[in-house]
Amino acid sequence: xxxxxxxxxxHDVVDKMNEAEKGEVxxxxxxxxxxxxxxxxxxxxICTAKIVQTVPDIDSKFYAATxxxxxxxxxxxxxxxxxxxxxxxxxxxxxPGQPARRRHS
Length: 105
Ligand SMILES: [Fe+2]
Description:
Blueprint: H1 12-15, H2 19-54, H3 58-83
Helix pairs in contact: 2-3
């Protein structure tokens, strides 16, 4: 994505970085962006699967199942982008550079 379209890169702090540092910021931004898309697709996969469970008749289940397959393909399509193009797969809503949130048990 062009730097002009990335609000996070239009910042005084980024202006003072060298190209290697700016590259690291770009990689982290893309890792975060693709991770958030993937989490959204995972959510859609779960929701559509629940719709299959909820609808009352078999024809509705067959129809809803086609959307489950679509969402599973979307998750599969995004997984390589979150595991090879960025530094890490980030948890949902975690911003680049933020420490990981603790989960409550
Ligand atoms: Fe999707």
